[in-house]
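Researcher: Structure for this, please.
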Amino acid sequence: MFDRILTPLDGSTLAECVLPHVVAIARAFQSNVTLLRVADQTQGVDPAPSIDPIQWQIEKREANAYLEAIAARLHHAGVTAETTLLEGRAAERITEFAHHQHTDLIIMSSHGRSGLSGWNISSITQKVLLSPAASTLIVRAYQPTVTQVDSLQYQRLFVPLDGSLRAECVLPVATTLAQHYKAHMMIIHIVSKPEMPRRTPLSEEDAQLAARIVERNREEMTAYFEKLRAQLSTPIETRLVDADNVSPALHDLSMSEGADMVILSAHGYSANTMWPFGAIVTNFIAYGTTPLLIVQDAPPEPNPPNSTLHRASMTRPPSPVMDSAPIRSPEN
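Model: Predicted structure, token format:
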């Protein structure tokens, strides 16, 4: 499933918060890891009008030495990693490299060398997410993490499902992690009330209709969960929760249950692949505070992201995540 893992690093401590997750996932899936650093001559708010070629070569050698040092740390933890240094704009080169190398999973920090800010993810992470070349794990740089790269043990995996086949693409990933780490795997479904817009309170007949729909959905998901228990090779906990709004209920439950990771399919029941992600995933990207593993269910685009042909063929409107102002993260 995750044969090829790509880990972009920029030399900052914040970006290195991903390393324990890289080791943990590579061990579970026996993955090949590539450490990538993009040297960008235009970095900084006020870049110099010209670049000293000697200084530029020194910086590239330092970047290569940094990657080799990180690879040595992973090797000591039992994970073999290759290193690659590219030049250009970070987000574009990351997505192009991931596409051309047929990467299965990109593991990225929410923030890097630009530092923590009021936004839940950095601009580079956001751009990589909006050009989905692979499944993606976002590690929240503002949350405490383990200090040793080989000491992370997943204990509680939070897996929301909506009953669709697309959402089920997360199950092989979640069960592999649960089995490898003997983690508690919780499968959640939020039973929400149907939307019935009215300028006046619902009539008794409408209220009864809404209640019947909720009860029918509960019956269907209860039967669905029973089938999952019979099919999956690992013990699971299933939970149905009644709520008016799905996203807030999932956020509250993931935090109250102390989830180590939230695992979501990029799309669910609506199956609308016009956007890179469905509404629930977009909400967790913007507001989530735990590591978020997004399993990409849509096939890769035939042309690499950011290529000339790719840009010329894009006729769909931009994603709402990019259109709106960045979302502020919770107070640390």
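Researcher: Any notable elements?
Model: Strands lie at 4-8, 32-39, 81-87, 105-109, 135-139, 156-160, 184-192, 237-243, 261-265, 292-295. The radius of gyration is 21 Å.
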